[in-house]
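Hi Q.,

Before the meeting this afternoon, I wanted you to have the dihydroflavine-adenine dinucleotide prediction in hand. No need to reply - just skim if you have a minute. The sequence and ligand are here:
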Amino acid sequence: MKFPLFLARRFVAGEHLQDALRVAREFKAKAIFVTLDHLGEDVTNRQKARRATAVYLHILDVLHRERSQADISIKLSQIGLALDKKLALQHAMQIVQRGKRYGVMVEIDMESSRYTDDTLDIFFRLMKKHKNTMVALQAYLHRSMDDAVQIVKRRGAIRLVKGGYKEPPTLAFKKKEDTNKNYRKIMKLFLKKGRFLAIATHDEKIVREAQSFIKKNKISTKKYMFQMLYGIRRDLQEELAREGYHVRVYVPYGTEWFPYYWRRIRERKENFFFVLRHLFRR
Ligand code: FDA
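Predicted structure with the ligand bound:
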């Protein structure tokens, strides 16, 4: 069954770049920045991986032409990691280089645990040559504190998230409190060490804790930002932006929206009822 796009509208800007650019302009009017994500993942065909890379290069050209302040986020499995690590590195390098030319940050999403080692390795190689890149780190993984320490040592930047994939208990915390505890620890490590951190969560308790930690320790505004997903906690996004915080909303778009959409649905049981209500109404 193909799900109709209107169901995903809350979480996905639309199917075309123009939809994402319109959303970016609406956010800009509220002093909120965006990170654009052209949806797609687990590509197992070289030509498709090459095409996905070309799409990102095109997006960067358009953003530059439009003088947009948007950044972009890429999934390495969309540009070849599911096929060949070297190919993914080559493609990512092209995208990061083009981003550097235009002053755009290229963020790297963290996907399921089968890609963690390769994603970090590619990130470190990119980082050696170009500074306009950062990687997502998932607080639900047992390994993430060790990875965080390595990234701090190498003077890298991260987007800290809780983690959105199904992982076994051998690799990931199963209790929310444990993930949250790890999130706080990694967040404070980055803030204390002065390495750049995107605090990417809708968890209001963590956001408030970050705000007081930042205030108490006089952390420079250049060292962090808040990030949230399109369609989630708009009230909090706008409140933070009104207070003068750097807020960036992750805006996904494209035709391959289903896996992303499904992760958002799984995160909250109310979302399931929303889908069921709308499907049965049709
Ligand atoms: P938590 O799940 O505890 O939710 C806190 C509150 O947020 C909830 O009480 C609710 O109010 C609201 N909320 C959260 N999810 C919601 C939903 N789906 N629908 C409605 N309300 C919701 N993951 C990953 O594995 N790799 C990645 O690269 C990224 N990238 C990324 C970028 C950005 C900018 C963000 C904000 C998140 C990601 N994620 C991600 C997703 C992340 O791992 C996580 O799954 C979600 O952010 C939900 O976790 P919270 O931190 O919001 O906390």
